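Notes to self after the call with IL:
- keep both proteins in one doc
- input above output, always
- annotate only the second one for now

Protein 1:
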Amino acid sequence: MSLRDYGTLTPLTDKISKAVQRGSVSHAYIIEGDRCIDKERFAKDFIKGVLCKDDPGWGCDNCAVCRKIDHDNYEDLYIVRSDDLSVKDSAIAQLQENLKVKPTGGAGNIAIVDHADSMTLRAQNRLLKTLEEPAPGTLLLLLSENTENLLPTITSRCITYRLGNYQMGEELLDLTLARQIMDMVADHAYFYEFKDKLTKAVKDRDGAFSLLDGLERLLCQYLIGDANGYLRREQAVRYVKYIEEARRDLIAGVNYRYAIRNLILKIGG
């Protein structure tokens, strides 16, 4: 994709494009958005806009540089990912070593830190040194679901872009299971019925996170009046609170089955 393809994010992509064309791109950004939003895809399209010579500020999506970024083989791009629980200090230490290497494809090295808000405290303090004294041409993109989990000293050194409720395709968030669960809540289903449904439908942590995203999106529709239903506003607010508690449990490493079943006991009990 190109930055031109993000129709509902036009104010943001226009801002990025103008910064590139003016030569005023910062050295560090936080890209914040829901788990269902493909923030890494957006980050790569951001980078294409910065590096592309054929369509500066936007990315042509066809040149050698754009294709390399899409396929994770651009020479000066480093991507750090979590180990399913957090981004460890050792991963940031390796990134810092990589950023010391002289760039070969462009003017500077570029890094994407996925799930940056899961970095350990030690990893965040280590990354802070890079944010304070970046090598010339360095560009850091920190992807986050909740910047409140990042140190203020990190957020203060980054420009934050929030992607809001942007979705890059309905296939990224299947609301079917969430609707079924909420229908069961409305019908006062027994816990064993919820348990059977969830055992078959939620197979891992990613599935659990997807269910939480779907439930939260449905409840937000109630809160803004876009959905007809049986929930009172105070119920929807309370359920969102329970969902966020379950999300924090998952991030903290709690077994996904326990976290989801505990949630169901709260909203279905």
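Protein 2 (the one to annotate):
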Amino acid sequence: MRRLDDEEREQYFDHIIQSLDEQKKEAFRESFLELHPTDQMELFRSLDKTKRALVYQYVTADEFADIFQGFELDEQEDFVLELEENYAAEMFNQMHADDIADFLSELNEPHAKAILNAMDKDEADDVKELLSYEQETAGAIMTKEYISIRATNTASDVIELLRQEGPNAETIYYLYVVDDKDKLVGVVSLRDLIIASTEEKVEKLMSSRVVSVEVHTDQEEVAKIIRDYDFLAAPVVTSTNELIGIITVDDVIDVIEEETTEDVGEISAARGATDVNVSAFTAAKKRAPWIILLMFFGLITAEVIGQFEETLEAIVLLAVFIPLIMDSAGNTGTQSLAVMVRALATGSFEKKGLLNTIKREFGTGLMLGIICAVVLMILVPLLYDSYMLAFIVGISLFLTLSVATIIGAVVPVIITKLKLDPAIASGPFITTVNDILGLLIYFSIATSLLQYL
């Protein structure tokens, strides 16, 4: 099984598809099963429904399970409808419980129940347990395919156990030690087991300082723990320390991708609509609430400008710099928002503390304000022949950028304290708030100095 480069993959795919067209089962199986699962998925996606039907005939349900669980959920929903009932049931029996649970959670209840009823009872019970846990918790993303051992086992006992049960486990690099009540008491790495004497007891090899996660722990916290400890897997326990599953690093990668997608959606005010596969109607429905809310904020912006109508009538040239003030405030605030959301997500915020983080962002805003103000005080007199106008615009931008960084940094922290996702302080929201404040600062200064213009 190997990963092909682009040119080699294309040629090899043509060869495999030719075998399929000519209905040469053995030639197809030999070539297709040699491919890496990622390449198998890519080839399968390129086939039409007639050719896919031949693949189901030539590839066993056990073999297709490895391919199926790698597809995106929307692809799985399409392909499962093409499978014969017994074939589908056997395929699900061979898949990991967490992958099945992820798939079934996206289906309507009758369809999900039909699949569970067709599966083996033990396999279906594991999946039902995972589905019973709240979404985005350790219990919902854990797998039941793990190996547990006893402290009284010898190294040779465990090696023999691995030969029997290892092929069905999601990972065997970590072996978890439990007592008679299935409570987690230790962990042994495969490396320590292999190099140990065959008669060495597990209790002599294991580490009793086990880092575990409780079943109701948020998946983001689980990802942080696995990242911080550089684990390949982490055990999941109940409140009484009973081992009930494990979470592997590949599941954590999926969590990180999911959380990142959520954050991007929140920051851009497009949560639930970042997937290009969703319909235009669905995307519009997801985005509309924010757009309507921001439209009302836009009316506030217009009202602010209206309150300073006399100032604008007196010096029309002030209107030229409105976009500059608004854009600079919004962009700077969004940058601070991104920095703070990232700091909260990675845990670096806790290390630095609120005061240090705000001081850092405020300092950044001050320096950006000084740089922009100096540039404007040089350019504006050259373009508009007015040093007072340059001073008004420059000092307004200096104060606006300073305030914008504070707002961009503080708002996510406040939202976090309210037990909400900090990314909900979306970029458009921060931008609009800073636009309003920037205009207030700009026109207040311009009005107070109007007599000098």
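Annotation: The longest helix spans residues 354-384. The chain is about 65% helix and 5% strand.
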